[in-house]
Amino acid sequence: MLNSAKLVVKVESDRTTNRIFTVSVFDNRTESYWTKEQIHERGIEWFLSKEDMKETLNWNLNGDADKYQFKWGMSCKTKSDGTAYIFD
Question: What is the value of pTM for the model shown?
Answer without folding.
Answer: 0.92
